[in-house]
Specification:
Two copies of one chain form a homodimer.
Chain A (H helix, E strand, L loop, with lengths): L9 H13 L3 H8 E8 L9 E2 L1 H14 E9 L3 E3 L2 E12 L3 E14 L2 E8 L1
Parallel strand pairs in A: 1-7
Antiparallel strand pairs in A: 1-2, 3-5, 4-5, 5-6, 6-7
Helix pairs in contact in A: 1-2, 2-3
Chain lengths: 124, 124
């Protein structure tokens, strides 16, 4: 980012995230939109633990992707935006290694600061 | 609820909540849709503390309403629904006693179990 560019608004970040998620580019979302000190919070019952820091969060994403044997389908909603936060609904129909086929449905909340995502949190 | 009625789905509860919120009937949302053991979670910096139990959550809502001198406007988005959770964006333009006029923007996440809201959480 040069000094002449303005930081992306929450709506800008939300639009870009939705665009990339619908193309299946989860890694690009994190690479491009996540802040270095991002925190990623999973519910207590999640098979994947929460993570802090961009590298750890990207490893967490990779660990989740590695659990998937076959992706059958999925969806990513438009975002609703409120101040520095936005949220989306996500579904994933996939066959997981060892666990078999499952339909995941969740709500994701993202926090934006100075044009970057500084936290995400998942509800399922 | 009689034994012949099915519990409302997450989408049903979301639709009813949005309908009532747009009519400004916050108290009715809690009365009608909240479970007895609901938890309501505010961020650490909120002027209103978190609350547990329907009575305490309704008192929390009343305490917030009592802080408002004049409501100038506001909005409540459609819900995005993912499994047992849904979320909405809310804005409120109001003059608060002592604090003056403020524009609040937030994301609200609701958790549904057996047709009732068992938790809400606010992000701002």
């Amino acid at each position: 980012m040069t000094t002449t560019q303005k930081a992306m608004t929450t709506q800008d970040v939300a639009n870009r995230l939705v665009e990339l998620m619908r193309m299946g580019q989860v890694q690009q979302v994190q690479e491009e939109l996540y802040a270095d000190d991002v925190t990623s919070t999973e519910p207590a019952h999640s098979p994947i633990p929460s993570a802090t820091g961009k590298n750890a969060v990207m490893q967490k994403g990779a660990a989740f992707a590695a659990m998937i044997e076959t992706r059958h389908g999925g969806s990513f909603s438009d975002a609703v935006v409120g101040g520095r936060y936005f949220s989306c609904a996500m579904t994933l129909d996939a066959t997981f290694k060892e666990k078999g086929r499952m339909n995941l449905e969740e709500i994701c909340v993202f926090e934006v600061k100075e044009g970057k995502i500084v936290s995400d949190q998942f509800f399922f």
